[in-house]
Amino acid sequence: MAKVLVAYYSRTGKTREVAQYLGERFEKEGVSCSLKAVGDVDPKELKDYDGIVLGSPTYYGSMSAEVKKLLDDSVKFHTKLDGKVGGAFATSANLAGGNETTVLGILNAMLIHGMIIQGDPVGSHYGPVAVTGLDDRVKKECDRFAGRFARLLEQGKK
Questions:
Q1: Mind listing the pLDDT tens digit of every residue in the chain (158 residues)?
Q2: Are 91 and 99 in contact (CB under 8 A)?
Q3: Angle formed by the axes of helices 136-157 and 14-28, to 10°?
Q4: DSSP letter assigned to residue 113
Q5: What residues pair up with 4 in beta bridges, in sequence order?
Q6: Are the C-beta atoms of residues 85 and 153 closer than 8 Å to each other?
Q7: How far is the CA of 118 from the CAs of 93, 99, 121, 144, 147, in angstroms?
Q8: The pTM is what?
Q9: Measured torsion, CA atoms of residues 145, 150, 152, 157, in degrees rounded to the nearest 10
Q10: What's 94's DSSP letter?
Q11: Under a CB-based contact definition with an 8 Å cutoff, are residues 90 and 142 in contact?
Q12: Are the beta carbons of 41 and 70 closer than 8 angstroms?
């Protein structure tokens, strides 16, 4: 069974709520999911997962310092995440709050690690985004994201 880590930073609880929903969706897809706050993730354990999904609130169009710290600390394991599946999601308070740039910032680091990223031609192209919390639109995006991510993980196991 594939193993995925969903790690997030959440100050108000909204990003945690999306992370928890994604974790449930991964489990429903038959993927073993560990859900952790980024502060509880030891960077060396990133090597233990087949897939890694990071979630962050949007601060000035970018990821939180806590998510950035995990990515900065992961440089010690450069080349060790090569071929793993990666993904990201973001939350914000406004429609044009910088969600896409936040997700892309996380994905940039994952690509530099050599991780496999799958875009989506439907909905949020780079990863799920929530604009005030976990509503029906976000749930639909998370459902689709988790299903596609699980299939990509399965392809890597063949």
A1: 999 999 999 999 999 999 999 999 999 999 999 999 999 999 999 999 999 999 999 999 999 999 999 999 999 999 999 999 999 999 999 888 899 999 999 999 999 999 999 999 998 999 999 998 899 999 999 999 999 999 999 987 65
A2: yes
A3: 50
A4: T
A5: 33, 51
A6: yes
A7: 26, 17, 10, 12, 12
A8: 0.97
A9: 170
A10: S
A11: no
A12: yes
Per the listing, tokens 């991510």 go with 149
Distances (CA, A) of 127 to 43, 135, 143: 22, 16, 11
The sign of the CA dihedral 102, 108, 147, 100 is positive
Residue tagged 């530099």 (tokens): 112
Tokens of 2: 């594939």
- In the block, tokens 């875009």 appear at 119
Q: Which residues have a Cβ under 8 Å from the Cβ of 84 and sit 6 or more positions away?
A: 49, 50, 51, 52, 113, 115, 116
Compute, in degrees rounded to 10, the torsion defined by CA atoms 15, 18, 22, 24.
Answer: 110
DSSP state of 81: T
